[in-house]
Amino acid sequence: MSDDPLLSIRDLRTYFHTDDGTVKAVDGVSFDVDRGETVCIVGESGSGKSVTSESITQLIPMPPGEIAGEVIFDGTDVTTLSDDELRDLRGGRIGHVFQNPQGALNPVYTVGYQIREAIDAHQDLTKRESRQKAVSLLDSVGIPEAGNRVDDYPHEFSGGMKQRVVIAIALACEPDLLIADEPTTALDVTIEAQILDLFRDLQAAFDTSIIFITHDLGVVAEVADRVVVMYAGKVMETGTGEQIFENPAHPYTRALLECLPGQPGGLEPIPGSLPSPINPPSGCRFHPRCEYAREACRIGEQPPLYGFDGDDDDTGDSDGDGDHRVSCIHYEGEDGELPDTNEFSEIGQEPGTGLHTGGGE
Ligand SMILES: Nc1ncnc2c1ncn2[C@@H]1O[C@H](COP(=O)(O)OP(=O)(O)OP(=O)(O)O)[C@@H](O)[C@H]1O
Ligand code: NI
């Protein structure tokens, strides 16, 4: 049993029914998170990273939202749980640091009260013990003089300090799964390093699994056991951090990495823009921006995730522990690889627009 992944997401579809049409924010996403593993979700703004992570504990407003597919957490399909059971799971076995922490703290209670509330909801401690634990959590997220600050109100903390309080609350229950959605964007690099260390310690001590969402590929390279690359509600590629960074296979992943000049806070944009989530293109959703696109890329469904065997490592083929997979028809078959970008113009096929035309024609 415990060899099973802690979390298995299968064919997750999270749609929002709006006046303008149905927004397919997440459209058939599958991936696993093993125990003690850090999985990073990357992709441009609007790819569906946050909606994926919020669907795990069903934190989607329904309506307009609607969730289909399976989310198996430690053997239980979360989509079948009652509201009470879901509330228990959130802030209990699953901790969540949200992308927009503004609303995460209640202005009328002290931070200590709010951390203790999280502790007491799931653990049986005396008042004194839970207060002590709140102080030590504040201390471990790097809040100076935590013993004095514990009785302060949120407005007495700076933005970065507030974010650390939010992280302390998410850690209060020693969750089995921590979902961290851009948790360090508001923090300076020293504090960011400290928070990443804290996550690592937590993981080492409790075998915590972490889903880490970030735009900062430098951080991904540092923390990821596995990477899930999302685009327009689909998984484009998945593999170990090493595979994704050293051997990116999907043209989208390559474009993301090429846009990595490393400025904190964001990527240089990839030429072109995300398709409409209401009317996504047929075929591969990236094809309108892909310089390798050919006719077959434009029709049908998003290609399946083919095993990729081109890694220069010892994990062997796609059955190996590497499990490098890519949703691109160029990798169909045994030794798939990307063709020369000129190839298709030579054989009379229109090259893709976007990246290609953006390249100086
Ligand atoms: N409540 C909602 N109603 C309608 N559309 C929504 C709603 N919430 C999210 N969306 C849409 O779902 C898509 C995915 O959004 P999501 O927030 O998951 O992107 P993201 O990858 O996290 O982006 P970012 O990097 O900017 O955080 C977007 O098109 C967004 O506009
Ligand atoms: Ni997001």
Descriptive keywords:
single chain, 361 residues, alpha/beta, Rossmann fold, eight-stranded mixed sheet, four-stranded antiparallel sheet, 12 helices, 20% strand, globular, disordered C terminus, binds adenosine-5'-triphosphate, binds nickel (II) ion
Description:
There is one protein chain. The protein has a domain at 230-358: P-loop containing nucleotide triphosphate hydrolases (Rossmann fold, 3-Layer(aba) Sandwich), CATH 3.40.50.300. Helices cover 29% and strands 20% of the residues. It has helices at 49-56, 83-89, 111-122, 127-140, 146-149, 159-171, 189-206, 217-223, 241-246, 251-258, 343-346, 355-358; strands at 7-18, 21-33, 38-42, 65-73, 76-77, 94-97, 177-181, 209-213, 226-231, 234-240, 306-307, 325-326. Nickel (II) ion binds at residues 49-50, 99, 181. Residues 49-50, 99, 181 line the site of nickel (II) ion (NI). Residues 7-257 form the ABC transporter domain. It is found in: Cell membrane.
